[in-house]
Write a structure and sequence with these properties.
- The chain has helices at 2-17, 37-50, 65-74, 94-108, and strands spanning 55-59, 77-81.
- The protein is mainly alpha-helical and 110 residues long.
- The longest helix has 16 residues, at 2-17.
- The relative contact order is 0.15.
Length: 110
């Protein structure tokens, strides 16, 4: 929803404002899939190949079966992250939360 989109945009600005991920700017691409797996897969494949996506970021609240299937088909990495501070051990405030996301993105970029 809009709250997630706003949070993603805030994280993107914060990460890029601190030098990006390993010196590379982060660009978060979002699509509305209407909660339909076939549409999600199609839109994700368009982004992966059209925008040269390196990683799929998945909120740890959601199942990872579709992103993992896409990763298997396309070679992108999957980074599972909490959707909010406190959603994972060691992410109790926004500094820890953003740091956790950056760490997961760095791992996915290897």
């Amino acid at each position: 929803g809009q709250g997630e989109r706003n949070g993603d945009q805030l994280a993107e600005r914060a990460i890029n404002g601190n030098g990006g991920v390993k010196g590379r700017r982060l660009k978060i691409l979002m699509e509305d899939d209407g909660s339909k797996a076939d549409i999600a897969k199609s839109k994700a494949e368009e982004q992966i190949f059209g925008q040269k996506v390196k990683a799929i970021i998945v909120d740890n609240f959601y199942p990872v079966s579709v992103p993992e299937a896409l990763a298997g088909d396309t070679g992108v990495k999957v980074a599972v992250v909490p959707g909010q501070p406190g959603g994972e051990a060691g992410t109790d405030d926004y500094v820890q939360f953003i740091g956790f996301i950056i760490d997961r993105l760095v791992e996915a970029g290897k």
